[in-house]
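Continuing the series of single-chain predictions for the mutant panel. This is the parent chain; the variants come on the following pages.
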Amino acid sequence: MSASKEKLAILGSGTMGHSIALCAAMAGFNVKAWGIDDEDIQRGKEGVGEKLNVLTTYEVVDSSETKSIKSRIHFTTSLKECVNEVSFIIEGIPENLSLKQKMFQELDVLCSPNVILASNTSGLSPTDIASLTSYPERTLVTHFWNPGHLIPLVEIIRGEHTSKETVDRTMELLKHMNKKPIVVKKDILGSIGNRLQYALFREAQYILEQGVASIEDIDKAVCYSIGRRLSVTGPFMTADMGGLDVFDSISSYLFPDLSKHEGSFNMMKNLVDEGNYGQKTGKGFYQWSQDQSKKMNEEREQQLIYWLKRDLVALKKDDFVETEN
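Parent structure:
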């Protein structure tokens, strides 16, 4: 099936659900989005509206297009209606294995065997999610990164029984949605992105606990060095460009000294035990006033939109070259 002919349904209207629906609608798809109740749907609609307002402000989307983009998203509280006559479903309900297994059992009955069932889980196994279904070969994970409408990466994670056709169709669909999909060939804990992210976070906590630098300076060390570079060159390309002889030499003496700590470090454990979870509670490693939250959320959004605009320009150039050829 051609990617442009896929008929989409998104299950969940929360933070990730409505963002994924927006991605699809911006790419020209008509998409059905399921919400658990009217309140859930209203939040989803408001989220789509707010995100489109920001995207028009930064000229990612033309203001004349917002009405048609919104019209391509049909919200419903009926699961049966949502999945009727669709060819591809992305599930975005809460991160609970039993909930997802129950949902996929329902979908197994409601959908014909050629309908792909994808979960947006960030950590659960596609093999486990599909374990109670009759057609596990059509199930996989499509891990969109938050915020889903701005981050281009989507990790496609195969289950033990996922078919090649399922992976291929998913890859083509995500490309058609202007995403940068990658295939995780083995069903491993944390996939790729989270394993790399938490390896960095573990070392950051270790450096802090050793009294080497302040929280602020550790963050600056990332933002103003590797953070700038990694948006262009990943770890392997960075090593190639820096010289593998150099990286081999440094690895030989630095790796043994890196943290091998299992679990969270004391400072974060203490913060969590005290009910200080970060931005959502007003205190974490940093103090989070309303002004600080607004400022940082806007700064992050601006940077992500900057890169999104660059990606879209590059995509148009690639399309032009292909057309010319």
